[in-house]
């Protein structure tokens, strides 16, 4: 089950859509290009002048806290809501605000995947395949096996757990052999093994040229598999860049520290300029610093006969960066 | 896993072929929707009722002496199996078809809301307009299928339990079994268009309210309101525009001579209602944003309240409008219909009683039809028709120079029920020459006349 989502990169990859390969052999157009997307509900701008570009084979994280506008942006890309302004280009097909997008070659899901509970998983996929024009590109059984549902294919979806429905949602997306995959919180409801399988699947699809947009409100879930990130806050893009740029700008890590002699540890920290010990909200020691400085400090503690009982990562640099970006007003942020 | 991967690879080896195909056709989506609908318990129960209900009804009728005398052809259910099918058709027109439409189509759109599957469906390759068309076609084809199922079941049941004897038409003429079967089939077929109009209404309720119960019950309530509106007012215009009335427009087929204008008008009205309902649905679906539960939502209660106010106002306007236009129910038409019908049924009665009636015998009848409440026009159940019967030759008792008075209930569509006290024409059931109990054809007379003739 744990490797259920693993596979060869070629297994589920599709050829780019006809419009994605320029005839002159020049650079391939973006798999996704959204420009100036605006969507308001009542007086609230859920998405406010958002630009988003995704190259073929790129895995981009669309990050932001709940209510940042990620799902509304995805719904706009899928045509579920009509943007008030902006243009969307999916696999070379351009739509302006008000058009319904043509979703050939585009797959994924928004929020939690939903299915007809009175049908089996197999019947659900057969029905969805008809919405794609008939027979599925990869056989349904193969896709169900791929996501670890081969043994439950003939069970009604009403009896599925959240994680199983999530897997079925991924199966439904793979059924279309997409060139562009838009996934909203794809690891939500999955156990750690399932989340790892999703990550490996995304990597394999990316290697085969499939562009993947992963929406998440937790950078820890998608941080390791994304090539680039777009961070939304209050409907606006507050950061956009590569994973390397994000790491460069990320603040230091924070660890929860417990030792056999906390007083000695605090004194020793004052002698190490690159680390700092603060009091956490729970009264416990919070050690911050770059990874190398933290390593040196731990070695120094040992030399002073101070044993480390716990050194636990509280917030990774990416997480810290995420919170910094999304908890401050966008105008105060430094662009990448 | 290996075989699975191999399968996937094989399937993926032909992506070009897949993309070379045109996108999903409406027919594909119709298949998908048909599969969804037929997998649902409500649809299966409905099919079961349509298949077995009329059969059971025919069987129960054969076990008892009573007849559903308040329904067109109800008095003949023990005399001809075709009457059984027509009685089922009459019941279906009042309630059955709107229920079929509501249960079948009332959850087609709202089901997607309830299961949260709009986003699943609309993120596939199919265009929204094609999804809409596929859903409409699937609901329509299944509705037609269920109507056909009820038609076959009622006809088979009638023929199996009662037999294929000739049917007495609505002008007192005897219709041969073959002709009766043909007319029964045509009558059921005539119900398809108004049924589709109610399917369109069910789809509209389903889409507008996003509630399956409203989608199922809405068409039935509309049918009830239309039935009530049909009972009031003397005018023609609003009555002609009520799609619920179209379910009974087949009656002209059984008159002598048959008349088709109500059927044609009813069909046209059904098409207009269907087109209007579907156009509204298409507009609603085309403009709808599927923003999810978290998005701010327009005040649904305000919208629902506005809809209720609009509905009540529309019903009030229609009720007031039932007086508009000329009345088509007149003394002259009523007399012109009842007299020949009585003239044809009297020999039928006499022959069943064993009396010899020469072929072509005609009674001389002087009719006088009036409304007890005054006036001489308009539908109502206060009509009285007195037939002064003059018998031209001996041997046809007891009608010699006898006045026969019928209490008449006349509907806006020109169909009437005439009931005579037993003192004039005998009891409802009488014994034929073989000692069998048979229906007295003169006790209750159902007839229809052409309202524009």
Mind explaining what this structure looks like?
The complex is a heterodimer of chains A (336) and B (453). Chain A contains ten helices and 14 strands. By secondary structure, chain A is of the alpha/beta class. In chain A, helix 3 packs across helix 4. The longest helix of chain A is centred in the middle third of the chain and has 16 residues, at 192-207. Helix content of chain B is 56%, strand content 11%. Chain B has helices at residues 2-12, 15-20, 26-38, 41-63, 81-105, 110-115, 118-122, 128-161, 177-190, 192-209, 212-231, 237-241, 261-287, 300-321, 331-352, 422-425, and strands at 167-168, 174-175, 364-371, 380-390, 402-410, 415-419, 429-431, 437-439, 444-448. In chain B, strand 7 (429-431) and strand 8 form a beta hairpin. The N and C termini of chain B lie far apart (77 Å). Classes of the chains: A alpha/beta (336), B alpha+beta (453). The interface between A and B is large, with 66 and 50 residues.
Summarize the entry for a quick read.
Chain A is built from ten helices and 14 strands. By secondary structure, chain A is α/β, with parallel strands linked by helices.
Number of domains of chain B: 2
Number of helical elements of chain B? 16
The low-confidence runs of chain B, each spanning 5 or more residues with pLDDT under 50, are 1-21
Report the helical percentage of chain A: 25-40%
Question: Roughly how many Å apart are the termini of chain A?
Answer: 40 Å
How are helices and strands ordered from N to C of chain A? EEEHEEEHHHEHEHEEHEHEEHEH
Q: Quick check: average pLDDT of chain A? A: 83
Features:
heterodimer; A: 336 residues; alpha/beta; six-stranded mixed β-sheet; globular; disordered N terminus; disordered C terminus; B: 453 residues; alpha+beta; 2 domains; five-stranded antiparallel β-sheet; two-stranded antiparallel ribbon; 16 helices; 9 strands; 11% strand; elongated
